[in-house]
Amino acid sequence: MYNNSAKYSQLIKDEAIRLGFLSCGISKAEFLEEEAPRLEKWLKNNHHGEMKYMENYFDKRLDPRLLVDDAKSVISLSLNYYTKENQTDVHAPKISKYAYGQDYHTVIKEKLKFLLSFIEENIGEVSGRAFVDSAPVLDRAWAKKSGIGWVGKNSNLISKTDGSFFFLAELIIDLELDYDYPFQTDHCGTCTRCLDACPTDAIIAPQVVDASKCISYLTIELKEEIPTEFKDKMANWMFGCDICQDVCPWNRFSKAHNEEAFNPQKGLLDLNEKDLIELTDEVFTKVFKGSAVKRTKFKGLKRNIDFLKSS
């Protein structure tokens, strides 16, 4: 069995890289003992803000065997989205790099579908589910457990070779595989650049983010009006925020992605400050077609831009 599990694991990893994933690690599907008290405390302190869905499926978030019957393995994958391209107008309201191209949920789900099919065709019948960000799975905990990287002070997963500009996803399957060693070392050291740079002081302690203060939360998750206490603290971000990643020394190792679907939408980076202040529903629909920005809808993005410009 050991030989087979080692052989199967390598097959899966090779195919994951062929499909364009940055890295692939595998861990045993079991209860996340270390994460349970952390998650409970985070929720108790209301650091999830209005994201009430984070309170749901508490047990499932900590135990993948409750998501997939007889789950044996969690296959963690990362997909690079880093680009050196930027918006041409430095005064224009800013958009996070991850949303330049097509919605990552769609792109990654397609790749996971291919990977699951590959496993079934080359190894045998397996039962499993694919997860991309929107399900009750603690992506970073599994990625760390499978050796992909460590959780930095900004709470992002960081890789020594690739930085942190990547998405995380999982396949949870009922096949026993060869398991990778968890990433044990924290390579942030005494660095506090992310904590110092956050304009809203959302990183309240190493690895603890109060989401209700985070610019990404305020511009995407929050459905009500942005609280006035954040006037002049948004650093001109209209969708998401990259500050804590931009200042991270490990991102000097980030390399440009080669995923065509993540290339900037036509005309997106050329929208200047005036274009965005005067943004119409028609232009929004055209420029952000198939983009993660659609999540805010026109009304939400307009709210964000108006808030920035009223500061």
From TrEMBL:
InterPro entries: 4Fe4S_Fe-S-bd, 4Fe4S_Fe_S_CS, QueG, QueG_DUF1730. [4Fe-4S] cluster 2 binds at C198, C214, C241, C244. It holds the Pfam family Fer4_16. Residues 179-208 form the 4Fe-4S ferredoxin-type domain. Its EC number is 1.17.99.6. It comes from the Bacteria. The active site is at D133. It is found in: Cytoplasm. Keywords: 4Fe-4S, Cobalamin, Cobalt, Cytoplasm, Iron, Iron-sulfur, Metal-binding, Oxidoreductase, Queuosine biosynthesis, tRNA processing. One of its GO terms (molecular function) is 4 iron, 4 sulfur cluster binding. Pathway: tRNA modification; tRNA-queuosine biosynthesis. [4Fe-4S] cluster 1 binds at C188, C191, C194, C248. One of its GO terms (biological process) is tRNA queuosine(34) biosynthetic process. GO terms for cellular component: cytoplasm. It catalyses: epoxyqueuosine(34) in tRNA + AH2 = queuosine(34) in tRNA + A + H2O. SUPFAM superfamilies: alpha-helical ferredoxin (SSF46548). Catalyzes the conversion of epoxyqueuosine (oQ) to queuosine (Q), which is a hypermodified base found in the wobble positions of tRNA(Asp), tRNA(Asn), tRNA(His) and tRNA(Tyr). Monomer. This is Epoxyqueuosine reductase. The gene is queG.
